[in-house]
Amino acid sequence: MNDDDWADLRSQCADIEPGAELVTPLSERPFRIETTAADRLVVRFADSAEERPLWREQFGVFDEQLEGQAMSIDDLQPGVEPYATVLTLSDAYTVEDDTIVKSPADAAGGESPFLVSAAEARTPPERVRDDALLLAHQIERLEAEGPFSVDSLDTDLLTDYYVLASDVQRGADGVRKTARDELLERLGPEQELHGRFGTVRRTTRERRRPADDETVLAALDDHGIPREWVLGVDPDKLDVVLSVTDLSEDAVYDTIETVYVQKTGVDEDEKYSRLQGIADRIDDLEDAAGEALREDLEDIEDRLEEALTAG
Hints:
By secondary structure, the chain is α+β, with helices and mostly antiparallel strands. It has 4 domains: 3-120, no CATH class; 121-201, no CATH class; 213-252, no CATH class; 268-310, no CATH class. 48% of the residues lie in helices and 13% in strands. α5 crosses α10 (268-283). The protein is extended. The termini are far apart. Keywords: Coiled coil.
């Protein structure tokens, strides 16, 4: 790899937006570039916190292999994947039809399909935190103008209010299920665990479902119970009949119409942009007002801790 290509690659790595990450194409391991040096790049893998140097010399070997030929992504070895992934950031290389090729001098390379934006790279807990912060900020703005009710909001604000609340609910439910699975590994039968904000216990609920038809019908016959008492219409078989006969759907189905609001799209880029603005404002709280706010929060935490301890 010549000096110009190496300089371009280092420049592209330095220009990656904070929080963005790269993902290896086969093993799908996310990683971020920590530092760049004259002879190496240092990357950190998100799934293990492992740091690994990627040497300029090895980039040169890979570059020589690409001279005059394409390399299939499917043929990449695990140790080579990070090199190939980073290389696609450079203007000198491009990805075409799942192959990596060296771009002609007049071609526009460097549009890596393995680069994930900062907004998309966030973990589920990070997304819940961010959406909750946006929702709290939205409520704060609305309440700044006095007590509000949803019927007083204009349509745009009401839509954003609903979308954010929906995203918080969906994201929090996903995080809750992950935490639930881990807690089940730690909780014994009827055991309780106590945290600062509440208590959980392992509870068992029984849900019944019929055994297979042969078992059920045999049990009914043994007790002299007519099979007709439990036999009903099978919706799957009824749909087959509707599809192959002239029987109308209205004749055998009662239709109940339910009207609800469906979220059909979310502008993650707009949410992330607004979130960054809020984060910047929080970072700017370095004056007395900011210090006072932090002291108030610490005081609240201390009083909460005392109350929980006393209780």
